[in-house]
Amino acid sequence: MISWQANKLGAAKDVVEKVDVQLPEPKDNEARIKIKATVLGLPDHMMLKGTYIVSNSFPISFGQEAVGIVDKAGPGYPYKEGQRVITGTRFDIGLGGLSEYSISPGEGAIKAPEDLTDEEAAGFLGSFHVAYVGLVNRAFLQSGETLLVLGGSGRTGSSAIQLGKALGATVIATARQKEQATFCIEQGADFVFNPEEENFQSEIEKFTNGQGVNVIYDTVGGNLYKQAVENIAIGGRVVLIGFASGEWGKPDPMHISWKGYSVTGALHTIRTKKEREGSIKKLNSLLLDKKISPLPTNVYNFDNAVKALDSLSNKNLGLTIIKMNY
Q1: Which of the residues 1, 19, 107, 135 could staple to 100 if both were Cys, CB 3.0 to 4.6 A apart?
Q2: Distance, CA of 65 to CA of 124 (rounded, Å)
Q3: For the residues of 62-80, what is the DSSP string, one character each?
Q4: What is the pLDDT of residue 326?
């Protein structure tokens, strides 16, 4: 099968190549899927730079999430051959979604909603399902509460804005550029500010009348996390999602005790069967009622994968999607 991979660091145009690799065989609770579309994002860009702390091995394989047709199901895999699923991929062992076929781990896969095109479905799991785990299953966000999304223009940040509004929350987002701020407003944010140009504490105090925020959804980490938790309300909840800054937010147990809040993490692969079934039902309902909508997509053909990977350095708004030629 054909796959796009890199065996050294650098710009995509210099190091990414189309290679022929062996067709993978699924193990227990896995399936081989024929890729229809895959999503590219910050992790793929960071892997090319050597700054992705989750995986730094070669070959670099791209596309951590994809939509495809189950081609061969291993024992215990939850879906049948021929069904269309959204799934994480085994990019960590060279079987990312930027290939003709990939391996789907059963614990994270879901059936693709019929109302979503391949391009829309490709990024739905790692955006809205991650946001749902974080905001609903872990932070228990309530209607009337205030949600602060750090990095609101990213794929999961913008999904959290939409979902937070659908759940009845007031949503604040951070964005460093004017175009990113506009995008956050378009996703439903009530207030957006640039923490590099405006005083973090005064902006939060002004908008919340000194009450602080109830839930922090952190896709950035680093120093932004430190500033955010200084503005959390008593009984608040912090959800650690990502590290766009290059490092995770670092909870301080003493600060947590003195301020009276909790910190948790969220992954769509780490949830109970009941949580997964509940999120599928609720998110599909919100889609049908148009209370959430698929993120805007920048679609590239499979043969233009290098161009798509190079475009990630521009910090595109919405999703960067690779669609297969067939």
Answers
A1: 1
A2: 9
A3: --SEEEEEEEEEPTT-SS-
A4: 75
pTM of the model: 0.93
pLDDT, tens digit (0-9, with 9 covering 90-100), for 39-56: 999 999 999 999 998 887
Q: In this structure, what token pair is assigned to residue 202?
A: 């005064």
State how far the alpha carbon of 123 is from the alpha carbons of 117, 188, 224, in Å. Answer: 11, 19, 25
The CA distance from 208 to 238, in Å, is 17
Mode of pairing for the β-strands spanning 170-174 and 191-193: parallel
Tell me the Ramachandran region of residue 22: left when phi exceeds 0, alpha when psi lies from -120 to 50, beta otherwise. beta
* Residue 232 pLDDT exceeds 90: yes
Span between the terminal Cα atoms of the chain, in Å:
14
Residue 68's alpha-carbon distances to 33, 61, 73, in angstroms, are 6, 17, 13
Distance of alpha carbon 63 from its chain centroid, rounded? Answer: 12
User: pLDDT for 59-112, tens place per residue?
Assistant: 999 999 999 999 999 999 999 999 999 999 999 999 999 999 999 999 889 999
**Residue 146, token pair as written in the block:** 């205030």
- d(Cα 203, Cα 197) in Å, to the nearest integer? 11
Cβ-count burial of 315 within 10 angstroms (0-12 exposed, 13-18 middle, 19+ buried)?
middle
Spatial distance between the Cα atoms of 23 and 27, rounded to a whole number of angstroms: 13
Tell me if 283 sits within 8 A of 140, measured CB to CB. Answer: no
Q: One-letter amino acid identity for 140?
A: F
Backbone φ and ψ for 254, nearest 5 degrees, come out as -65, -40
Give dist(CA 234, CA 158) in Å, integer: 25
Q: Which helix (H) or strand (E) holds 238?
A: strand 232-240
Inter-CA distances, 323 with 29, 59, 70, 98, 116, Å: 26, 22, 17, 9, 14
Q: How far apart are CA 108 and CA 99, in angstroms?
A: 19
Residue carrying the six token digits 């993978």: 24
